[in-house]
Design brief:
By secondary structure, the protein is of the alpha/beta class. The chain is built from eight helices and eleven strands. The protein folds into two domains: about 120 residues, Response regulator (Rossmann fold), CATH 3.40.50.2300; about 90 residues, Orthogonal Bundle (Arc Repressor Mutant, subunit A). Helix content is about 45%, strand content about 20%. Helix 2 packs parallel to helix 3. The radius of gyration is 19 Å and the shape is elongated. One of its GO terms (molecular function) is transcription cis-regulatory region binding. This is Response regulator transcription factor. Keywords: DNA-binding, Phosphoprotein, Transcription, Transcription regulation, Two-component regulatory system.
Length: about 230
């Protein structure tokens, strides 16, 4: 059975979600605040997270940000806020889908099944990738060819996005949007120089000028080589 972490502080709604999902054949891991959600996320490693925005302790935005530091597993946001700006913020922050309250049971199940169907096996921080790279979120660093490279927050987020999309070209505009939250896609030179610094640190860590998994794709953007 698929394990789903449900993060919801409304006891009645949490119970309704649990009954609905368990009847559909899933195993539910409940959490009613942000800190408990993060503890269970790492301990249980679910296949999907259903996350409410309005939470005590840490709110849903903070939980989403920390989740994206730990894993690329699918996240479905639930919120009473129906404003377009909140929907856009959620998707740009790394959520995979967004469902405003109130919602229908069948729609929620359909969205859950679609996310699970499309999702590849989740990657988790602390695990090695096929080429030996390991992201270390608590130190904002990367272990590359056995040596640790200390990164700035920007460099870490760049590498995180590139490696999660390994083999695919990520455009300069997409990186501006996702790393700097620059929706107007201005300041393209920031991307260029940040990527140059990231690549230099990875080469220095490996002690090899050729040991660079990030490549520039002329006129398009950047790619993490598989």
């Amino acid at each position: 059975m698929t394990r789903i972490l449900v993060v919801e502080d409304d006891a009645d709604l949490a119970l309704a979600l649990r009954v609905l999902l368990e009847r559909a054949g899933h195993t539910v891991i409940p959490a009613d605040d942000g800190r408990e959600a993060l503890r269970l996320l790492f301990a249980e490693r679910p296949a999907l997270v259903i996350l409410d925005i309005g939470l005590p302790e840490l709110d849903g935005w903070e939980v989403l940000e920390r989740t994206r530091d730990l894993s690329d597993l699918p996240v479905l946001l639930l919120t009473a806020r129906g404003a377009e700006t909140d929907r856009v913020r959620g998707l740009r922050s790394g959520a995979d889908d967004y469902l405003p309250k109130p919602f229908g049971n069948e729609e929620l199940l359909a969205r859950v099944e679609a996310l699970l169907r499309r999702a590849a096996p989740a990657r988790w921080a602390g695990e090695s990738f096929d080429d030996g790279l390991r992201l270390v979120p608590e130190r904002r660093s990367a272990v590359w060819q056995g040596q640790e490279a200390r990164l700035s927050d920007i460099e870490y987020r760049l590498l995180q996005i590139l490696v999660r999309n390994r083999g695919r070209v990520i455009t300069t505009e997409q990186l501006l949007d996702r790393v700097w939250d620059d929706h107007a896609a201005t300041g393209r030179e920031r991307v260029k120089f940040a990527v140059l610094r990231l690549r230099r640190k990875l080469r220095q860590a490996a002690g090899d000028e050729a040991a660079d998994p990030v490549e520039a794709v002329r006129g398009l953007g950047y790619r993490y080589r598989t």
